[in-house]
Design goal:
Distance between the termini: 220 Å
Strand order of the largest sheet: 4-5-7
Oligomer: single chain
Keywords: Membrane, Transmembrane, Transmembrane helix
Number of strands: 7
Radius of gyration: 64 Å
Order of helices and strands: HHHHHEEEEEEEH
Strand content: 5-15%
Shape: rod-shaped
Helix content: 40-55%
């Protein structure tokens, strides 16, 4: 009986020791293991308070500023917003990361970046050119309108002459030119007279620098008869010459310049002289 009791006590104590050693081993394994138990994972997490609680002591006002507790509540909300933004960023990064590993996508990204820079430089160049043209136009307009200017216009080219030569009458051949209506600029500044009202219909006339029209020698009549030799008189013969003016002109020799006179015409010279 005593042996049975002793053995029973020994077995009980051994079982208690085994249980204690198992519990201590379990506790040590739980302390060393970084993976939490499933029961701990299933437990709900604690909520962060919207406003932190502070214990104000004697030296709190000197050591810290807790007069405005809204600051700490905003800190907690800012932390939440940062966590939300960081999570959204990581979600976006996980979606884009496979594309970033693709070589074709990287090449296209580089090409698009280069083209974007070229377009940006061209846009800046066009804006600078446009700004330069605007400034230049303002300067030209200010210079033109600040200084007084008279009436300005130009003529169209001269027309052809009314005749190719002068026939000897009182009217010389003329050429005309008209005012170019698109070139008329009215006077500015008030110091110069305005353009005439009839400027649009004004005609400028000038004589043509032409020679006399050519004539034939046969058109000029003969003069009276003259002795060929004044000492021989009628015995030496008589002649007459055409009456040609002394001015400059072109004459075609279509006939003889002189002509012999008859004996009767020579005798009439003697009677007219005496």
């Amino acid at each position: 009986m005593n042996s049975k009791a002793t053995s029973g006590n020994f077995t009980k104590s051994f079982s208690y020791e085994a249980k204690d050693s198992g519990s201590t081993a379990r506790q040590s394994s739980e302390e060393l293991s970084p993976i939490p138990d499933s029961t701990e994972v299933d437990q709900p997490s604690g909520s962060i308070p919207e406003q932190m609680e502070f214990l104000v002591g004697e030296d709190t006002e000197q050591l810290s500023d807790v007069t405005d507790p809204d600051i700490y509540s905003t800190r907690s909300s800012a932390a939440k917003s940062r966590d939300g933004s960081s999570s959204r960023f990581f979600i976006w990064f996980r979606r884009v990361y496979p594309l970033m590993r693709n070589k074709k996508v990287r090449y296209l990204t580089i090409i698009n970046t280069i083209l974007l820079l070229i377009n940006f430089v061209m846009l800046l160049f066009m804006l600078a050119l446009l700004l330069n043209q605007i400034i230049l136009a303002f300067r030209i307009s200010s210079i033109m309108y600040d200084q007084p200017s008279p009436c300005i216009f130009t003529y169209e080219p001269w027309s052809t002459c009314s005749a190719s030569c002068w026939d000897g009458s009182s009217n010389y051949p003329q050429m005309q030119r008209y005012v170019n209506k698109n070139s008329i600029v009215q006077a500015r500044g008030g110091e110069k007279p305005d353009c005439p009202d009839d400027l649009h219909s004004r005609v400028d006339v000038a004589p043509c620098n032409t020679f006399r029209c050519p004539t034939n020698l046969s058109q000029y009549p003969f003069t009276q008869c003259y002795y060929k030799d004044s000492l021989k008189e009628s015995s030496g013969g008589c002649y007459r010459i055409r009456n040609i003016p002394l001015d400059d002109r072109l004459i075609f020799m279509d006939a003889n310049l002189t002509q012999n006179c008859s004996k009767a015409e020579c005798d009439r010279i003697e009677t007219s002289l005496f």
